[in-house]
Amino acid sequence: MNRLYQPFCRSSATRMLSKIMFFRSLTIASFISSVLVFSSTANANAQSPQLNNTDIVNYSRVLLRIEPERQQAFDKIKKIIGDREIPKIVCNEPNSFKSLPSEARDVAVNYCNRSQQIVESNGLSIDQFNNITLQLQNNEDLKRQIYNTLIRLQKVPNNQ
User: Fold this and answer.
1) 33 part of a folded domain
2) Mind listing the pLDDT tens digit for each residue in 100-152?
3) 149 inside domain
């Protein structure tokens, strides 16, 4: 009887883990299409170079590493400013920081600096990261590729 229970628990735990990874990937996928662009001056109409698998993997790794830091920074800023709405913060637009109190501004600047380091340490330039982010807005195939890569990377944490 005990033997029957163990495989069931493993199977149940595997399904639960798959659901958690699915929702984490879904959250990250929605994040990439709307929240983090280092520069709003990137030209969405510019000719986009074809992405290779390395670009897709690097971009996905960046997302997995940035998201926890983004959430932490967001929570700190929210705690500092209270009930006020958090303005859209664009890392290389200093005016987007102006309405933040100095302590919250420091959190945002630290987050932006750390994000840039993460992007660059994963083999992408900020321009490449922004370009991929912009391409995702209108490219369902690319969204699917990034989504599948996120799931694959989360299943094998050592690949991150």
Assistant:
1) no
2) 999 999 999 999 999 999 999 999 999 999 899 888 888 889 999 999 999 89
3) yes
Q: How many CA atoms lie within 13 A of 66 on its CB side?
A: 30
Q: Provide CB contacts within 8 A for 22, sequence distance 6+.
A: 151
Which region, left, alpha or beta, applies to residue 48 given φ > 0 means left and ψ of -120 to 50 means alpha? beta
Question: 106 is in which domain, residue-wise?
Answer: 53-155
In the three-class reduction of DSSP (H, G, I as helix; E, B as strand; rest coil), residue 75 is classed as helix
Residue 91: CB partners within 8 Å, gap ≥ 6? 38, 39, 111, 112, 115, 116
Total domains in the fold of the chain: 1
Instruction: Classify residue 112: in a domain, yes or no.
Output: yes
Report pLDDT digits (tens) over 8-67.
344 444 444 444 554 455 455 444 433 334 554 444 444 566 789 999 999 999 999 998
Give a yes or no: residue 57 inside a domain. Answer: yes
Q: Structure tokens of 66?
A: 């940035």
pTM for the full predicted model: 0.71
